[in-house]
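Hi W., the aspartic acid complex you wanted:
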Amino acid sequence: MLIVKKFGGSSVANKERIFNVARRCVEDYKKGHDVVVVLSAMGKTTDELIAMAKNINPNASKRELDMLLTTGEQVSVSLMAMAMQAMDVSAVSLNAFQVAMNCTSRYGNARFKRIDSERIMNELDARKIVIVTGFQGINKYGDYATLGRGGSDTTAVALAAALHADKCEIYTDVDGVFTADPRVVSDARKIEEITYDEMLELATSGAKVLHSRSVELAKKYGVQMVVRSSLNESEGTTVKEVVKMEKMLVTGVASDKNTARISVLGVEDKPGIAFKVFQKLAKNSINIDIILQSVGRDGSKDISFTVAEDDLEEAINVLEENKEALTIKEIKHNARVAKVAIVGAGMMSNPGVASQMFEALYNSNININMISTSEIRITVLIDEKDVDRAVQAIHEKFALGEV
Ligand code: ASP
Ligand code: MG
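Structure:
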């Protein structure tokens, strides 16, 4: 069996943890399996590297930032190989160049294009454990580019697909995917099985446990993922296409404070305005989430939408620069908002789920700013200060803590 095992930063944060991971990998190796290990940077290394860069130059170029950030993973993979060698197991660490993991050119947010399997296969044939740097690829300029924060999950799934692995295990410091963030909701429950679509909606709604791109890739290539703890033997959560039917309407609730609302007021009520506003933002790679347009009155209307808080400044600049062309009278923004979303395949065929969610918020005296839905998700935009209370009230309302 060929197994890809990915370990997050906290799982390799120190010597003891590194040997713990080495031991878990060697166990599978000694059973005769081929083992490919993907690692993140140790502990808070990536955050520290970002802080170092900011300290030198707050406007550091994205190329140099990626050059710096990719060193974090290179430290953890080489130390891991040394740990395994200390246990008399042959192991080799490889970075994105050595494997040849090709990605798109965008620094800080690259996507894999093609991964060579030859080098890894040769090393596995030589009975080595292969340890690969997560989070990085090589772009067409021959530079390192990173995949976005949390991107090592995506490296693991991409490798599992490229190598036709039998298993892809994502090890982290929690027991799996939960019905809500256990730090916020004390009776949050571990989910046994979840569909790709539900997991994708949760990940894009702020659940940090998996990089959303990794779930997209897993769905595309049919890679079954297991999310489990590196610190115990608990079974974890399986992410796959079809799961056994649960009676639950709602599978989980997620929240995201990294959200800001922008309103453009008084734009002309005629065809093409929304198109031009969002085209300008798209050209600057600004992702839009929830959109709300008011009913036109006296020939003008308002459009509100949300963006990631990190993109707020740039979005405002783009709109200000094009204010006249876009017929905008006034631009307003608010960064102190957050999204709360419920996700569940069960809501597709059951009416009344939205009203139950809104009732939970009403009973907690929480005001809703905006609403957006997909077939299996309902998202509301609320005040940032109400987020934890909202998540708790919704979790309770749908009895998500009960099996
Ligand atoms: N080290 C990177 C980060 O902290 C990638 C990862 O951990 O997946 O975002
Ligand atoms: Mg992660």
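Residues 8, 150, 153 surround magnesium ion (ligand 2) (CB under 6 Å).

W.
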